[in-house]
Amino acid sequence: MLANTPLKKTEITNSAETQSADDKSPILETLLQLRKTKDFVQYYNSESKNPFYIAYFQSLIDSSILHNDILANILKSEVSNVDDFIKIIPIEDIKIVETKEEIEEQLIIGSVIIYFHVDDNRVACIPAQSVHGRNVSSPEIEFSVIGPQDAFVEGIDININLIRKRIPSSKLTFKEITIGKLSKTKVVVAYIDGIANDQNVDTVLQRLRDIEFDQILDISYIEQLLQDNTNSPFPQLISTERPDRVAAILAEGKIAIIADGSNHVITGPTTFVEFFTSMEDYYMSWLVGSAFRIIRFMAVAFSIFATPIYVAVLSYHYELIPRDLLATLTSSRANIPFPPVIEAIFLELTIELLREAGARLPTKVGQTIGIVGGIVIGQASVEAGLTSNILLIIVALAALASFTTPVYQMGSTIRLLRFPFIIFAFLWGGLGIVLCLTFLIVHLLRLSSLGNPYLAPLYPLRIADWKDAFIRLPFSMFSIRPFITRSKDIMRFKESNAKEKKDNKK
Predict the structure, then answer these.
(1) How far is CA 296 from CA 291, 434, 471, in A?
(2) I need a surface site. Which of 128, 405, 449, 499 has the fewest CB within 10 A?
């Protein structure tokens, strides 16, 4: 077996001292840089007929691959040059590299390098990565009662497999790019060739290549770097943990981006309406799915406008309150020393604090904090005369309504939007709400997703795409792909064939 004789540091030091910077081999330069690292291992095997050197990061490789597949085959064979390793070792993707940068890159991704002399200019890089990851589990954020119960994990190969199982087509294409000067994160762009628009694909690939960032720890980094408007609170790409959602989006002619180490996949181009669609809408009757989708839009509108309308009415528009309700409001606010805006912001911030505390604490403790804290603080604030019980009900319902959005990023944006609306309502009443809404609509009209309009099919108006916007019509009417994708193949199927029932009649 391999002789456990370490490569002497004095030998490397002496070699480095007798050579100028221009004369140093790529191997020697790499060894000089990495030999101080604790988990970097270097060995010299003198028992072989042709002694060789071997080096690797112990923390990155699988020791069973090293001993069973690499060393066992090398010691049984007569190897005299690095090119022979490709023939005798039963591992794919063995590379022969010649530059210092390539050697370092192969080492840090979990390869074993083998060479015969320190002064050589060529080394064999053999993949021996140690793969650690969790098994495929059910979705935690986008959970659904009906439909598949598998979710993406942190392994990029497993995620590609989950997508390819749902689209077993040779036209499904994956292109890999490495991003991050330090992290060297593998990123894969997925699309269906012949359906996806070439301009959209080129836009994504170009923006990924233009990214200059030292570390990409999660795909959310890429999502923020790819957005058309990085100063907007609205997400312009959908982040999902569901493989079925990605498969459906790819079939529409859109693009998916997968990053190694992330259990989410981002897709685009997207529209504002898509953030309120759930995959469960397609697993139920179109009537039921449409009803739930309409409820979500109503819930979002209530979440944004309920508290600002309360502040505006009590501050400026008492005449809008029905006489029967006016007495109740007056009695509930009789002992409150603050104006409605302070009362509203206090409760909204309290809800956000409870939500943030519940999210950061362990699951069981977080649930207890959310429930008990909400009840205790709400009841205590009413009894102390800090808030009215009517506003407490409104704020609680508004917070509950904000959680109906299927995509988490949009839910956070909806909760943030309430605060500028409350301030505008306090300053100018109903006119302030309309003014703030105008600013919001203008901002949405100017937004785009990978160069495509964000408010489609509302603007520009695309009546044909309304079949899967605010409601979801039957699948027989989905014969044409959405116009926003500008697909190369716009037709899914012939609508006349889908509507015709060809039952066998005897």
Answers:
(1) 9, 22, 11
(2) 499
Element (H, E) at 399: helix 389-402
The residue among 3, 84, 87, 107 whose CA lies nearest residue 51 is 3
CA-to-CA dists, residue 413 to 16, 284, 303, 416, 420, angstroms: 57, 28, 11, 5, 12
pLDDT of 172-197, one tens digit each? 999 999 998 888 889 999 999 989 99
Question: Can you point out the beta strands (E) in 116-180?
Answer: 123-127, 172-179
Residue with the two structure tokens 């005897």: 506
For 73-82, the CB contacts below 8 A with 24+ separation are 74/48, 74/114, 75/1, 75/2, 75/48, 78/49, 78/50, 79/48, 79/50, 79/52, 80/50, 81/116, 82/114, 82/115, 82/116, 82/120, 82/122, 82/123, 82/124
Q: 332 or 274: whose pLDDT is higher?
A: 274
For residue 273, what are the CA distances in angstroms to 236, 322, 360? 11, 35, 30
* pLDDT per residue as tens digits for the range 349-394: 888 888 887 777 776 666 666 666 766 777 777 777 778 888 888 8
- Radius of gyration of the chain from its Cα atoms, rounded to whole angstroms: 30
> What separation in angstroms does the CA of 134 have from each of 155, 244, 473, 488?
8, 19, 38, 38
Same domain, 169 and 249: yes
Both 19 and 84 in a single domain? yes
Mean pLDDT of the chain: 84
Which residues form the domain of 16? Answer: 5-127
Distance between CA atoms of 480 and 314, rounded to whole angstroms? 49
Assess whether 218 and 323 both reside in one domain: no
Q: 245, 413 in Cβ contact below 8 A?
A: no
Q: What is the mean pLDDT of residues 46-53?
A: 77
Q: DSSP assignment of 402-465, as one string? A: HTT-SSHHHHHHHHHHHHHHHHHHHHHHHHHHHHHHHHHHHHHHH-EETTEETTTTTTTT-GGG
Domain co-membership, 64 together with 106:
yes
My answer on whether 277 and 320 are in the same domain is no
pTM above threshold 0.90: no
SS3 for 45? strand
| Structure tokens belonging to residue 327 | 């007495």
The secondary structure of 288-299 as a DSSP string is HHHHHHHHHHHH
| Residue 17 pLDDT greater than 60, yes or no | no
Q: Which of these three, 424, 446, 468, is where a domain ends?
A: 446
Q: How far is CA 245 from CA 148, 162, 181, 272, in A?
A: 10, 11, 31, 16
